[in-house]
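TEACHING EXERCISE
Course module: macromolecular assemblies
Task: Read the component lines below, then compare them to the predicted structure of the full complex.
Student: A.B.
Group: 4
Components provided:
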Amino acid sequence: MTKFLIENKSIVVPGEVIAEGNSEISGDAYRDGDNLRSARLGLLNIENKTLLPLSGRYVPYRGDVIISKVIDVNLNGWRLDTNSAYSAMLPLKEGVSEFVTRGADLTQFYALGDYILCKITNVTSQKLVDVTTRGPGLKKLTGGRIISVNTHKVPRIIGKQGTMVGMIKEATGCRIIVGQNGLIWIDGQPEQELLAVQTIKKIERESHVSGLTESIKSFLEKETKNTVVDR
Amino acid sequence: MTYTKRADGRRFDEMRPIEAKVGVIKRADGSAFFRIGNTSAYAAVYGPRNLHPRFLQDPQKGILRCNYNMMPFSGTGERVKPGGNRRSKEISLVTQMALLPVLNLDEYPNSVVDVFIELPQTEAGSRCAGICAASMALADAGLIMNDLVTAISVGKVDDKLVVDLDSSEESYDGIVTDLPVAILPNLNKITLMQMDGQITKEELRKVLKMAQEACKTIYEIQKSALKERYVIEDA
Amino acid sequence: MKMHKELREHIIKLLEKGLRLDGRKSLQYRSPIVIKKGIIKTAEGSAHVSIGDTEVLAGVKLEVSEPYPDTPDEGGIMVGAELLPLSNPEFELGPPGIQAIELARVIDRGIRESKAIDLKALCIKEGEKAWTVIIDICPINDNGNLFDASALAVISALMDTRFPKYENEKIDYKVKTDKKLPVNVLPIAVTVIKLGNSFLVDPDTEEENVIDARLTVSTKEDGTICSLQKGGETPFTFEEIDKIVDIAIEKSAELRQHILGNR
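Instructor-supplied answer key:
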C-alpha cells in the first residue's frame, strides 16, 4: 500500500518523505526503512510517478543530440565544449565524410569557436565522450545566435512531438534547433529572434507551472498580434 | 555567577531572526542567502565542472571543494585583511566535511563541485550560517543529496545552556562554551561538531537536544526558501 | 566563452537595426538600477548596487594611523577590489589578478581626483593621527559592467559612512557616531564600449566578450572629467573620444539621479 505524503505536482526537497509503503517512482529517490525519500530538489508528479529535476548541469548521454563548441583542433580531430563538466572528442572520420590527406589543416572543416550540432556516440564510465556529425541534420551552425537554458527544461521547450518549439518557430518565423545540453540556436530577423529568446526564457522560468502551452500561446499572440496555431 | 538575561532579550533556547532566499546569484548553478541576526552568508555552487590540475581528479566520483571567506568589512571590529587565514581555511575544511556526507557525486567522475561561501557581515555563528546557505545552494544546483544540512551554534554561558550564541556571548567575560554543530534534519545525523570551552557529558547531551530542536526550525525555513523559488508571481 | 567572431558579427547586425541581444538600445542601461545603503552593520558605511543582474557590494572601514610625513594634516583613502569566484564561473580563487587591480585603481582615481573626500577633514592630530578610509569592492553577481556598478556602490557607501567612536586613542567600532564622512562631490563612472561602428553603454557579459575597446569616464556634477581609462585592443580616433565623452556626461547625469533620489 502506498501512501503519498506530498500533493501532486509539488516541489520536494532532498530528504523529504514522498511516500510510505512499497511504491517506486522514476527519478532520484531512495528508500529509508518504510519511507521513500527524495534525493534532490524536484517536481513530484504522483499520477506519472515521476520526480522531475528542476535544475542541474547537463551530463552527456549516448544518443543525445547536442550543440557543442570547438575548443581545440589537433591532428586527429576536434575537441568540443559540451556545456557540461566533460569535453567531447569529434574524431576526424566522424567529422568529415570525404577523404582527408594526412596533416591537412582541419580548421577548414571546423575551426575554433565554431558551433556544431552533433550526436553523442559513446560515453565511457570515466565520462570520456565521443561524438559524430555524420547523421541527418548534423552540421556546423552558421549565422544566428546561441542561448543557453537549463538542460532539464529542454523537454518543455520542445514540447510533445515538437509542438511547443513548433509554435515558436511559426510565430516568429525563426529557425530553431534545441540541443539536449541546453544550448539553443536561433536564426531569423532580429526582432523575431529577440521574441523567440524571450519566449524560450519564459518557458524556462515557468516550466513547472500547469497551463504553460496556453500561456505561451497567449504571449506569442500578444507579441506578434497574430493568431498562433497550437497543433 | 549566573547568566540571567540575553542582551537582545531572547529566551535561552531561542534563535535570532532568520531570513533565507534561494537563487540569488544568477551566474551560479545554484545559490542561496542565509541570515541569522546580523550574520549573513551568500553561497554559490558551480558544478559539476571541469577540474584542473589533473592530479586532483578522482576517477570514481566528483569531488567537493568549499571555500569560506569573510568580506573585509564583515568583522565586528577592525577590517579583515582579504585573502583568508588559518581560521578561514579550517572553517572551509569543516564546512566541506559537513556537506559531503549528503552528496552523491558518483555520476560525475573527474569533476569538481565548487562551493563558495562569502560573508558580508558576521556577528557570531558565521560558519553555521555558511553551511545553512551552502546546503540550500547545493540543492538549488540540482545535485543528488539525501538530505539538507542545517547548522547552529549551541553552548553554555555561565550556568545557562543556550542556543545561537551572539557576539556578546562568544566574548563573554566569564565561562563560555561555544559548540557549532551541523545536523541532517531528516536522517538525524551530525556532520559537524566543534567546541571552544568545556562541557560535562550531561550538558553535552542536553545541548545537542536543543540543537536538534533549533535545527528543525531552520529546516522548515530552508524548505520554504527552496520551494518559494518556484512560485511564479502573475505578471 | 570569449571572442566569438560569429557572435560579434551577429551583434553588429542587430545593432544596425538599433537592437542589442537583450532588446536594449545602444545608450540604454539595464533596469532596474537599485541602490541600497547601510545594509552591512559591521561596516562604517556600505551599499549594495544592482544594474540589471550585475550586483556589487561595497563596504567602508575606517582606521587611524600616522599621516604621511609630506602630508601631515591629511588622512588617506584606499580602494581594494576582489573578483570573488562566487560571482562569475571564470573567476578563480587567489590574490587579486590584473582585472581586479585595474578595477580598484580606476575607481580609486575617480574618488581621489574628484576630491570627493576632503583629506584634511580626516586629520585628527596633525603629524600624529589621521583617519584612513578603506573601501572594499565585492561583486556578488557579475553579468557585465562591474566598473559602473562598483563606482556607484563605492560613492553610495561613502555617503553612508559614519565615524565610529574614537576615545583615548582607541576606536570603538561597536558605536557609530552621528558624524558623517563629508562627501563633497559625487563622481559617476560611465563605461562606453566600441563595437564595430557602434557605441554602447552598460555591456552585459556576452557583449563584454566581443568588444573592440572601452573607455571609462568618471565625471563630477558640473561635467568636469575626473578619471579616464581606456581598455581593449582597438585604438580610438580623436573624434570617437569626443563622442564618447559626450555620451558619458549625458549618462552620468542619469545615473546620478539614482543616487540623489536615494539620499
